[in-house]
Amino acid sequence: MLPVERQNKILTILKNSKMIKLDELHQQIPDVSLSTLRRDIKVLEDKGKIEYLFGGAIRLVSKIGEISFIKKATMHLKEKEKICELASKIIQDQDTIYVDSGSTCTLLLKQIVNRKIIIYTTNTQVCSILGDIVAKVILIGGNYNGFTSSLTGSLTETTLKDLHFDKAFFGISGVNIGTGYMTPSIEESSKKRIISQRSVQSYILCDSSKFGVTSTVSALQLKDATLISDQFNNEIAEGTQIIFPNTFKP
Q1: Mean pLDDT computed over every residue of the chain
Q2: Distance, CA of 61 to CA of 132 (rounded, Å)
Q3: Phi, psi for residue 139 in degrees, rounded to 5
Q4: How many C-beta atoms lie closer than 10 Å to residue 34's C-beta?
C-alpha cells in the first residue's frame, strides 16, 4: 500500500470514528507496522489534517476556521455583543489600536468607529461600515482572503513591523490550555505574533463556544494576551487573565 493510500485510509477511519487510539487504528490496518503508522500520522499532522493527542489518541483537526465569515457572523451573536461591550470599555480616547479580522472584531469595529481613536486593521469588513466615522481608520494592505475578509502576507507584515499600538484586539478560532490561542493558517498566526509584539496590551475576543477547541496553528500562548469572553473558565484562567461580564461590576 502506497503512503498516500495509507494516509487516506487513516483519514477515512477518523471521519467515521472522530477519535481513535493508535493500537485501535493498527487493528483496522493490520498489514502495516506501528512504526509506519506513526510516520503516516506525523505526515498528516504536519499537513494540519489530524492531531496526535497526549495518551496516543488521534483525531481530525477541527474545521471551525473554515466556516465563512457570513456564517460566523450569525453564530453566538449575543455572546459576541457582550464581549465587544467589555472590549470597548478598555479603549480610551486618543488610543492607537489594532483590530483583527473575524466576526467578533467586526462587531467591535462597528461599536468604536465613533470614538476619538486611531484604528489600524486588516479586516476588510471595515469598508462596509456606513455613517459618521469619527475615528481615523487605516486599512493595512496585503493578500486578500475573501473567505475570512482578512489581509495577510509579506506586505502586511512589513507594514506592521513599523507600527506601535496601545492595544490590540484579536479574533481566534479556538483556545486550548495546552496549545493556547489558535488560528487556521500560518499567515494569520504570523501576523498576530508580530502585532502582539508591537502592542503594549493584547486582548483576545473569544466567545465560550471556542473553549477547548483546537485549530491548525498556535498563534499566541495564553500568557501573551488577556482573554475577553462571555464566560469565566477555571482551567483557562490558570494561564491568563479573563475579562467577562461580571468583571466590571462593583
Answers
A1: 88
A2: 42
A3: -90, 115
A4: 11
